[in-house]
Amino acid sequence: MFFPKRAARRCGPIALALALATPAFASIDHRQAVQIALELDPESAAQRLEAEALEAGAVADSQWADPMLKFGVANLPTDSFAFDEQPMTQKLLGVSQQLPRGDSARLTGERGLLQAEASYANAADRELQLALAVNESFLQLSAQLERRQLLLENRKWLEQLVEYDRNRLATGEVQSQRLLQTQLALARIDDRLQTMDGDIDRARGELTRWIGEAAWQPVNTRLPDWPDTEAWLQARQLPVPPETIAGHPALDAAGAMVEAQSRNVALAHEAYKPQWKLELSYGQRQPTPMSDGADFASALISVDLPLFRQNRQDQRLAAARARESAGILQRQNLLQRLHGGLNSAAASAESLQSRRHLYRSQLLPTAEATAEALLQGYAANTADLDAVITARMEAIEAQIAALQLDYDYFRALARIRYYLAGAVPVDGK
To answer: Which residues form the signal peptide (predicted)?
Structure first.
């Protein structure tokens, strides 16, 4: 089963440098954001520490019980408290050892190790979930920043148009109504920019949850470089088979817990076996008028008898079997959920890729050409200003939509990478 080993994560020097001491002029990309989040995440560290605790506990639980030492006095007369008055008075020293019931010690240790394995796998799954959440949030923030940049660039065009109409108004070539129209379009752009600034701040605030103050640093909005995932997607035909996610750590964790429950079933079977206890003791006596004071040695064997099983052993066995069956069904449900999620992410990525191609090959060139043609017509007094502004705004919306498709496509790829456990399988399947 897949699970990364050992030691809880600590805040490393890279995370500290980026999250706490990033200079104001530096920029952060999606890979650095994920790395910071992994370094600073307390939950995965806690799960690894829990796994270490379970491993240590498994070693302890697989051992025999400690031997018991007993010492004292037996048959001491209470009228005189003399050791040499009665022949049965003894000073006792003994040791006893309780043996595990059947093979229960080994099974208990194996159960603890399997629970530790599940905890390690849960920590690995947590890291994959964290990487997915940070990638999606970071890509959304990057998309908002790029949309804002597009609006700023088009705002410059509207400013030039306003200045152009102001000059034409001064020479009497246009009426003031046209200048007001361009000024209104410019004001609408400014309103969208202010709304977008609020959205960007909220996105940064959400990212702060995972990477701290680094979320407020300048952002490198470059799209991720995931050629292996894109190649995997291009080679797939939907639906993707369930075997594709067979090595996912969440499934490994569920599988380990099913195995741990199977050890509980075996332990319930062991409860039908008797439990033995061995005891040795030595009694020292003093000579008395009636006895020469010979010492006594004793050896005892005790065994419990699990005779009344109906309300104890039988019920515990039934409970253990029910939990094992529930674990198997939960693992199957998890497999179906992960399989469905992978197919959904792959279908979304394919659809988004098709739309990206459509925008770049047809919609964007057409919208830009229309806006340019109407602008030239307006300069030659053959096109209406409303049509010019409408065409330009449609071109802006097309650019924004194409930009959002890019980032949505890579967000879908991020989900695919989660379901593929962070990397494309080596055999490409």
So the answer is: 1-26
